[in-house]
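Subgroup meeting minutes
Present: P.N., E.W., G.H.
Scribe: E.W.

1. P.N. recapped why we're keeping a running log of single-chain structure predictions: easier to compare across weeks, and new members can see raw inputs and outputs side by side.
2. G.H. added today's entry (317 aa).
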Amino acid sequence: MTSAASTAHLAPDRETGNILLGVTGALVAVGFWAGWIVLTRLSVTTAFTPDDIVFLRFLISAVLLLPVFWLRRRQLNYRNLPQYLFMILGAGAPYMLVAANSMQHAPAAHVGVLMPGTMPLFVAFYGLLFFGERLGIWRYLGLGLIVLGDVAVGGFGIFHILENDLGHAWVGYLLMLLAAAMWAGFTQAQKRSSLDPWMATAVVGVGSCLGFSPYYLATSGLAVFDLPWGEIALHGLYQAVASGILALAAYGIAIQHLGAQRAAAFSSLVPALGALLAIPILGEFPDPVAWFGIGTVTLGLMLATGAIGPRARKGRG
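Output recorded in log:
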């Protein structure tokens, strides 16, 4: 990522293309993300292990994306190898392992706040630390609200764990923050990778399959295919097609046309939408602290990424 620092400051987050297309891509990604949180939590708390979900996701997506990878292979440039590796780390198998394991320990409402809810916070931090992208006062206020919501939800979650003697379940909350940091790295890396959204999606899918499948086959064999085929089809196709391909490509389109910071703004919709979907699907009703976190993080995200508030002056991220 640091190899692009010399050019990143020129236009870090101003609109760079078709605004309508970028907004549409962001909204499509948000919808799939919210469903992904709920279905992933359902899968890893019932019949599937996190390893099963990761294997299914990237096996299916790699098969579907191989033609894209082959036809657009000329976009690859060995000089951008660090960006490609950060993309696979931040949105591929390593990210999915961290995210899926975290969802075994907390309700979907908490996942929405602490994972997609904190991702723009890390995007802004990386932009400032590595690329000199500065923020205005309104965006710093937004980051403060995000931290407030995260502390409320995370603190309540840890208090609940300690009160109910849930052992090492607090690790799940730390894993959510790690997953958010990883996805933010993907966001910044894709912006600077020189790949179009579909090729970026193919690099993540194919690279993750090549890296993770040998490990899964060596440790688990084909155990996932012993599960009911209806569940394999539901979770595998949603993970691979809806979340692993369509959502990732749509988010890439949003990054391409809106910039990393503004694309990240739309994740402000995920916590509330994920919490609402969890009510009928998982039977999880958000507690008052979760609703407080959803509200403050949503407002904070919209301020921190410039979705609301005075427009940043030229030269600010």
